[in-house]
Every structure is written in C-alpha cells, then in structure tokens.
Write a structure and sequence with these properties.
The complex is a heterodimer of chains A (about 450) and B (about 250). Chain A contains twelve helices and 20 strands. With about 450 residues, chain A is α+β, with helices and mostly antiparallel strands. Chain A folds into three domains: about 5-65 and about 420-445, Uridine Diphospho-n-acetylenolpyruvylglucosamine Reductase, domain 2 (2-Layer Sandwich), CATH 3.30.43; about 70-180, Uridine Diphospho-n-acetylenolpyruvylglucosamine Reductase, domain 3, CATH 3.30.465; about 185-410, Vanillyl-alcohol Oxidase, Chain A, domain 3 (3-Layer(aba) Sandwich). Chain B is α/β, with parallel strands linked by helices and about 250 residues long. Chain B has a single domain (about 10-250), classed as 3-Layer(aba) Sandwich (Rossmann fold), CATH 3.40.50.720. In chain B, about 45% of the residues lie in helices and about 20% in strands. In chain B, the strands form two sheets. In chain B, strands 3-2-1-4-5-6-9 form a seven-stranded parallel beta sheet, sandwiched between helices. A two-stranded parallel sheet of chain B has the order 7-8. The chains are: A alpha+beta (about 450), B alpha/beta (about 250). The interface of A and B includes residues 12, 16, 386, 409 and 445 of A.
Chain lengths: ~450, ~250
C-alpha cells in the first residue's frame, strides 16, 4: 500500500489541506490503518464529491477507498447487490442496468461511491426514502470493534449512526443494497415551466404523486413577479412499451458518455451576475412553454452535469459553496425568503434545485425531513457569510437543517438545534471510537463528534 | 479550521500589542468570533487589547509571554502554545521595533537590537511555527513586513535592512510551504500611523491602521501571497527600486 502526502479539498475546491493518503487494497489494510492511525487520526474518502471538508483530514491520514471496487454478488431472487464500498454508482449502473435492476435512490451525480452514499445518507429526486433506507447490511471497520457487520434492525444504533455519520463512526467497506426492477434504462420525463416559486410548489404538491422522481430548477436571479420561476421536470421509469421501436434494441443500455471537459484553469469571476443571468434565461427559454413529455436516458435525467467532466472548475480557483437546507412542510415561506434574499443580493448562482421529501431520514444525523429542500451553488466569497448565516437562523427557527455533506461554512453553534438527535449520535459514535481516532476537517470545524478537540 | 468563506476559528498573534495586529484581529473576530491568543513580552500589557477583542466578538482571548529576543525560549514557547490551544488557523507575525536610526549608526548595541528583534527574532520563532503549521496541514501565516525593505533608504536603513531580510526570508518560507496546505502572506505596508510611528513626520501615501487591517483581511480572502498597503505603493516601489544609485541618493529619502 503506497502512502503519499496530498492536498485534498472537497468538490467546492475551497480550504485544501494536506493529508497522508493511503490507498488500501483490502480489508486487512483498512483494519490495521483504523486501529493505529497517525496522531491526527484517519477518515475515509471516496470520489471526493462532498462539497466541503467532510473527506479531508489536515495533517492526518486519509483512506482513499477507490481500489475497493468489486461488485461481489447480485441476488436476482431477492433483488439485492453486494458491493465493495469504493464502487461508484456509475460502475454499478453499468453492471445492473443490462440485467434490469436499478438502485432505489439515485443522487444528482453518478460519480459517488457506495461508501460515500451511505456515510452521507444521500437522497435524490425520489421522495420516499434516502439511500440508507435500502441498505440491507454493511461491513464497517471501527476502532473499537474492528471489522463488523451492521444490520438496520439488529444493530439499529450503530447502523443509523454510521449512515449519514460522515465517516466518523468507522470505515464502510462493503454493503448490500436493495434494488428495484426496471424494464428499460429510460425515463418518461414531463417538463413544464412555472411562473414563480408559489406556482412551482403548488404544482409539485398537486401532481408529484404521479411520478417517482421530481425536481424543479429555479432561476435565482429572476425577481419581482418572476421570483423563483422554474422548470419542473418529473419522471417515471419507462416501460418497454414506452420506447420508440428504434430504441427497443438498446432498451437497457446505460449510454454513459462525457461530452465535454472543463478547461484546466478558469479565472475567478467568469460566473458573474451577467453571464449567469444569460445562462439562466437560456435554460428557462429552452424548456417548452406548455407541458411536454419526452423519453430520455438515465444520464440526462439524473446526472445532467456529469456530461461536463470537472465542471466544478468553472468557479475558478477560489471555488464555490453549495448551500442546501430543508424545512418542514408548512414553512414554504423560508424557501421564498431565501430566494428573495439571493435575488436581492444578486448572488451569481446557477439554477437552484427545489425538491420535496415525504420521509424523515432514519439516520441519527441524516438530512431529509418531510418538507422542502433548496440547494444552490454560489462562488465562494466572504460576503456570503452574513447572508448564509442569516438564512441559517430562519432554517433553524422553522425546524429545518442544512445538509452536512454540502456544508463548508456552517456556524458550529447551530448544529445541535438543526440535528436534535446529535447527542444520541455522539454517544453511539463515542462507543465505536472511544479514542477519537476518526477525524476529519469537518469534525474539527463543527466539532461534530463533540470531543471538543480544537483541531489537533 | 478556516471555512470555505475564509472564517477562522483560532488566531495567534506574535506581538500582541501591535496596533496593526489588533485592528486586523478585531475585524476577523467581528464576523464570527474566534479564539485569540496574544503573545507579548509582558502579557499584562495585552489586557486592554483583550478587552477590545472580547467586545468585538472574540469567543476567548488569552495572553501569553513571548520575548522576541530570547531566542532560546522560542521552540519551547511554540510547543507549549500549540499544545495548549490546538491548531491555529491564522498566525500573525506582528512584532518589531523601529529603533533610533541616528543612535544605531554609532551604537552597535542599538543597531543590533533592531536587527535581533525584527530579523533574528522573527526567524527564530518562525522556524518552530512553520514546523507546527506543516504538521497540522492547514493555516495561514502572515508577516507584517514593510515597504522599507523593498529599497533600503538612507533615513532608516537599519530598520529597512532588517525588514528587507525578513521579507526575503518569508518569500523563501512561502516557497517551501507551497504544497503543504499552509498559506503564507507578506504584507508590505507604507507609512502607517501607529504608536510606533507616533511623532514622526508622515511619509507620502501614509495609511491608517484600519486600512492595513482591511488589506490584510481582503488579502486573506483572496489568497494573496503579497499585499501592498496602499496598493499604489507597489508601483512607487517599482520605480524607486530601479532608480540609479546617483539619482536615488539625491532624493534624500
């Protein structure tokens, strides 16, 4: 196993720090690494798609799990697949789709590992559950227990502390996931424009139940009567009969392809209110004026940005933050206020994503709660601190929270109010890692684990 | 940890009574609050600064003893400070003396005092600080340098040469830390109205302490390696630097 110092940052490319990166090839390596890491601890890392500092560990060890990339077993009777934690969704889809299987929850990019998906308890355009709800069991290497199998019922505390646990309970090495059968690799997608955010939310509430997947792309720079104008896209898995005759021969083909790559270096400030406004206008105009139905592939529907490799570079060397919060149903006004403030501040943000949840994450510090979630990317700038800190207050007041996987700037004082089961998580975590060997920069910044270690 | 928007959680000031450092840290803690450690020869002289910082929003302020010219103590001081307070997101190296140029031209002791504080003392404490920052894998190291070092002038060449030396040293430190996760920023200020320059005739393009503090904060946010205050100073110095000796001398600077 080779270890080398490497500067690591999250997908937002802010706050890079130096860690010793190990690339374990098997379980044994991980067990020994977790048992005796460097004095500044160890954290697992997958494909580095967390936006902030969740998978970096300044001055310590990082286990990059991309070599654990085997698909171990597919059980066609039960509809489950067992994989090593470094397997990406992209790999998994290439294997599963031709066989007619599909994961239950799919996020907005295929370039995440299964380990990362579990540790973040990710969600997607599906409203009734998050990723961990469909994990049958998983193997986790913890400092206290070594390698152990966890199941959602038998080991409820440890299991739900690890899912969504940001890697701070142990290193996930293997998982068995429940799957859904699909007839094709296509989505029947309905697209419509909405006038403003109220119209958008009303339409979602009215007809979301007809769709398995639903998402609205909001133009954050629109203001006045168009505040929060949006393009609403919703879809269901296409059946064989939905496909045109010409497509039936490739009914289960995944068709992944990368069309473009972002240039190696892009200056700060390329994304400014002018260029972004123009882009958003185009995006909105491109959508059909009247509701419109098309059959499209998995990639354009779920992973539109995956077609531009390294798209995070377009924000320039200063990077960007993603702000994502959820507020319970009934707190729609928080979404509206947020859009008003972003619009008024003329923050150059591409489309914001508005989605609904109709479930609460079972993970102790998981993100989803029934309600509305808004996410948007913003170029990193010090002026954002007061703006986002102010929104956090509204979110907390409404009983909502921000998503840790996206976070890189939350005030640590708000953590406990946002995550009411934090103490429960901390005590479970402490039992799995009594020596506080598992550490990340996010933990140092937010004191997630409550060890109060002030760095070090 | 410094967050994505540049907010820091812990600050160490070497030279805790420096006007510029105090104004800078005030601006830093006013945003989110942070833990501040002020290091000065007599920690009790930091009391009023500590009160100001608490008022400005600092979550904690501590004063510790640090003598810039007691070289032998530096390694132990740095170890004890980092062990006690944990990681520092920002280390501000702000101590220095102007000295008495006229005296220093005749009195070796007076000349050495300036050089030992501004150059040797800074080097001596920087070595262990860099070791700790390198080990923590993150952080910002900021040196308050001076335009006086850019082209040393007749009127204050002892001070100027000490600043020239430490500025050069920090350029090397910055290069050595390039891929370490630690950022280094050198602040080259012109004439600043502080207690150090009290009673002196202000030079052209003089600035206030607040202006320097703003420039430091802005420079950190932008990830600058060198900051000139005021920015125009950079171009003034470019000209001065390239003047032929005969002309430069006639300017009687």
């Amino acid at each position: 196993m080779i270890a080398a110092p490497e500067l690591l940052s999250g997908w937002g490319r802010t706050s890079p720090t130096l860690a010793t990166v190990h690339r374990p090839d098997d379980l044994e390596h991980i067990v020994s690494q977790v048992a005796a890491p460097s004095p500044r601890g160890v954290i697992a890392r997958g494909l580095g798609r967390s936006y902030g500092d969740a998978a970096q560990n300044a001055g310590g060890d990082v286990l990059s799990c991309s070599n654990l990339d085997a698909v171990l077993a597919i059980d066609v009777e039960k509809g489950t697949v067992t994989v090593e934690s470094g397997v990406s969704l992209d790999t998994l889809l290439r294997v599963l789709l031709p066989l007619g299987w599909f994961p239950m929850v799919i996020p907005g990019t295929s370039y995440v590992t299964i380990g990362g998906a579990i540790a973040s308890d990710i969600h997607g355009k599906f409203r009734h559950g998050s990723f961990a709800d469909y994990v049958d069991r998983m193997r986790v290497v913890t400092p206290a227990r070594g390698a152990c199998m966890l199941e959602p019922e038998g080991d409820a505390k440890e299991f739900w502390a690890t899912t969504g646990g940001m890697g701070l309970t142990g290193v996930i090495t293997e998982a068995t996931l429940k799957l859904q059968p699909v007839q094709t690799s296509r989505i029947v997608c309905d697209t419509e424009r909405t006038n403003d955010v109220d119209d958008c939310m009303a339409r979602m509430l009215e007809r979301d139940h007809e769709y398995r997947y639903s998402v609205a792309w909001i133009d954050c720079l629109a203001s006045g009567g168009h505040l929060g104008r949006a393009v609403l896209t919703r879809g269901n898995h296409a059946t064989f009969d939905d496909l045109a005759f010409s497509d039936r021969a490739t009914a289960r083909e995944y068709m992944p392809r990368t069309l473009l790559a972002a240039p190696q270096w892009i200056p700060n400030g390329l994304l400014n209110p002018l260029t972004v406004r123009a882009f958003n206008e185009l995006w909105f105009r491109r959508a059909p004026r009247e509701p419109h139905r098309v059959v499209e592939g998995i990639k354009p529907f779920f992973f539109p940005l995956d077609s531009v490799r390294d798209w995070n570079r377009i924000y320039g060397p200063r990077g960007f933050v993603q702000y994502q919060f959820v507020v319970p149903s009934g707190s729609e006004r928080v979404v509206r206020t947020a859009l008003q403030r972003f619009s008024a501040a003329r923050v150059p943000t591409f489309l914001a994503v508005l989605k609904r949840f109709e479930h609460d994450s079972r993970s102790l510090i998981g993100f989803p709660i029934s309600g509305w979630t808004l996410a948007l990317d913003i170029p990193a700038a010090p002026e954002l601190t007061p703006l986002l800190d102010g929104l956090d207050e509204l979110v907390v007041e409404a009983g909502g929270r921000v998503y840790l996987t996206k976070d890189s700037r939350l005030r640590p004082e708000l953590l406990a109010a946002m995550y009411p089961r934090l103490d429960n998580w901390r005590s479970t975590r402490a039992a799995l890692d009594p020596g506080n060997l598992l550490r990340s920069d996010m933990d140092r910044r937010l004191d997630l684990s409550g060890a109060g270690r002030r760095g070090a | 940890m410094r967050d994505a928007l540049g907010e820091v959680q812990s600050v160490l000031v070497l030279g805790g009574t420096s006007d510029i450092a105090l104004a800078t840290v005030r601006k830093v803690v006013a945003r989110r609050g942070a833990r501040v450690v002020l290091a000065a020869r007599k920690p009790e002289t930091c009391d009023s600064a500590a009160a100001v910082l608490r008022d400005a929003g600092a979550s904690e302020v501590h004063s510790v003893a640090f003598d810039a010219t007691d070289f032998a103590s530096h390694e132990g001081f740095v170890r004890a400070t980092f062990d006690r307070f944990g990681d520092f997101d920002l280390v501000l190296v702000a101590f220095g003396v102007l000295g008495d140029q006229a005296r220093a031209e005749h009195d070796p002791g007076a000349a050495l005092e300036i050089v030992q504080t501004n150059f040797s003392g800074t080097v001596s404490v920087t070595v262990p600080v860099v070791t700790r920052l390198r080990a923590q894998g993150h952080g910002d190291l900021v040196l308050l340098s001076s335009v006086a070092g850019e082209r040393v002038r007749r009127s204050n060449f002892v001070y100027g040469s000490s600043k020239a030396g430490i500025d050069g040293y920090y350029q090397g430190v910055a290069a050595s830390l390039a891929t370490s996760g630690v950022r280094v920023m050198i602040v080259r200020a012109g004439f600043v109205h502080t207690k150090m320059t009290d009673g002196l005739k202000a030079a052209p393009l003089s600035v206030t302490v607040d202006a320097v503090a703003d420039a430091v904060v802005r420079g950190l946010a932008r990830g600058r390696e060198i900051v000139w205050v005021p920015p125009a100073m950079r171009y003034v110095m470019v000209v001065l630097r390239h003047l032929p000796v005969a002309v430069f001398r006639r300017l009687r600077l």
